[in-house]
User: Fold this.
Amino acid sequence: MNSFDVIVIGAGIIGSSVSYYLTKAGYSVALIDKGDIANGTSSRCDAVALICDKKPGIDTDIGYRSIQLYKELAQSFSFDFQFSTRGSLYVCETEQELEIAKDYVAQQVKAGYQMKTVNKEELPDIEKHLAKDLAGGVWTEVDSTMNPYMVCYAFVEEAKKQGLKLITHEEVKAINQSPLGAVESVQTTTQTIYTKKVVNCAGVWASKLGDLVGIDIPIKPRKGLILVTERTSKIVNQKVHEFGYMLSKFEDINYKRKVSQLVEKNNIAFTIEPTEASNYLVGGHRDFSGYGTDTNHEVMKGIAERANRFLPILKNVNCIRAYAGVRPWVVDHLPIVSEVDEVPGYFIASGHEGDGISMAPITGKMMTELISRQDTEFNIDRLKFSRYKNKKIENL
Assistant:
């Protein structure tokens, strides 16, 4: 019989990680995707694992733990995914931003994380090309980077050594249930596969897989566009982004940046990071505009405007292409890592927004612990799907 202990749906970074940890724990696993490995959001994102962009508490806790797991995986995996701990620098444009940042850093330091504020005189020692009128910043040494494509393939290749069955270019059409609602099998475009457990790792498409079993998964696609520079001499040493990026991410209504109408309209906040190929990824923006991944010239212009404000040297660097992706947004900015009480055997690991790469290892580990009925490393009550009962989000 064509059957597995667990079927994982979605071969992006989260599904790849979940599959790896499940196979490592001894489960027979099939990983299914309607496209290929890293075909969706994971191929249209940046390439960092950060704690500096997380809210204090469980958001930071699991982000930090993920970085530690990445360090271990980089040593044990046979597939090199270009992991590096470079650190990251938030830059504050104004004294008001710096005061907000100081309070944020104080909370993180109190929780035991190494993070520090730097004044305007110290900024040139960290990144010499920054604009001279910035107020200061936040430096986080532990923040890391990797190749998002390669890390997906690394997880899959290691899982295949443990027996993972990879099924690509097959779309899940139905999830069949018993009379009591429990998962019994998965129907793809070509076959029926039997299982008692399904993990929905479909990211922005997770709600569509929820529809197959009659549950409402409140995930919306949030679009982001990134510019890619030509290969050039060193501009920055690490991830650099404006502190307004965090305020933009969490929609902080208590702070209003003084930016152009173009930047404000498109919710643009500056970010740049180096690649191993000597290009730079420059972003970014956040926009609720459906599932489309087309690029937009107006947004590109706004990103360039904001980037030049923080790094004037970029005026002399060409942009060779742009790409956009959609990130799985949830209203409280915490992923869903949970069983679904209404559908026995149905699990969800989605809703990471822009933190899929960052939180992939710990998500795979926690999901394996859930399925194994073990205590999870963290208290993940705040990540449960049940937190959305009796709550609604706007329809797309």
